[in-house]
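1st attempt posting a full record on here, be nice pls
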Amino acid sequence: MSFTEYAYTVANRFLKYAQIDTQSDPFSTFFPSTEKQKNLSKLLVEELKAMGVNEAELDANGYVYAIIPSNTSKEVPVICFCSHVDTSPDCSGKDVKPIIHKNYDGGEIRLPDDVNQILSPANHPDLENKVGEDIITASGKTLLGADDKSGVAIIMDAAHYLLNHPEVKHGELRLLFTPDEEVGNGTRKVDMKKLGADFGYTLDGDILGAFEDENFNADELTITIDGVSTHPGSAKGKLVSAIKVASAVIDGLPRHQLSPETTELKEGFIHPTNLQANGEKASISFILRSFKEADLEKYKNKLEGLLEQALTDYPGAKGKLEVQQQYRNMQQVISQHPDISNFAIQAIKEAGIKPQHKPIRGGTDGAMLSFKGLPCPNIFTGQHAFHSRQEWISIQDMQKSVEVVVRLCQIWERESK
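the predicted structure (as tokens):
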């Protein structure tokens, strides 16, 4: 199997997909949260059928399911490759204008629609490793959408390769493209029976060679505060501002630990993500994250203590705290099937890349799928600075990811009886 003569389609696919607005909406009551996500999903079905994938469909919930038949006589586990079509609501995804910066010279990249947006090795250290490569950015006003349209494009190109190289033996493959991953609902309505896979991989990772089979345990916690409202001109002894009570809770958070900006690797955190308040009522949303599930209870207890102290300091106010589980560490599931990780790491090595085996400081569809019965770690795509206007990706990294996916399919076939 050689990739030296292969005309990769991944870059052209990505450039096309990036220009389709697929932002999800965390405040929507619909599923998928935005109908426009289906515009990309419909295109994927059309492209798959044009490739020769007869069994490709878009369901009413915005999921794309596709089957690439086995071309071997061996009994090979059914492998799924999954990416999400939506982009983050954290930064505009409308009218994305992707730009290729060919043969990157190692210096600054100024984005033309906002010259204050500057990429360089100083603020994006991995650019040092990309000299001579072709870098794609947006124009400065929007995110790029590499998270996760790079994963979508990689899976599509890998399918294209396999369908055009029948000499590369593989078992049956299932492709899954999901909506609403960025708002935490990527697998909410996935039909696991229709998917019909034994093991899976998400293509939603970052740096070249990254492989992730461990992620945060995650809870969402909400504190609701009821103050006492009255006219400020006659408020003495009566007014209790819910805004001040909420501020006291937030001010009690540690400044030098337990926050995203002060932690790394496997350190957990408590992070306030939203505050809505007026004098009468306030609501604070937090996310709790740790690689140790028991820490989430400790974090909850800490916030309970801060709330109790704030209510003591502001007599007359009332408050309550509610916790909702979001996802758990997929390592609990994946560790029971070591071949899943071993084969992926082997595929990365066979592609001539040094594996970067690391934990995810976040979650993916793979974490949710793992607990739905489909062990599903995460493979790199090359995306950087996701959810921001400085998002970028190397075309060569995407091409290497295509190669890894193809080699991984081959390894599963090779190691089966």
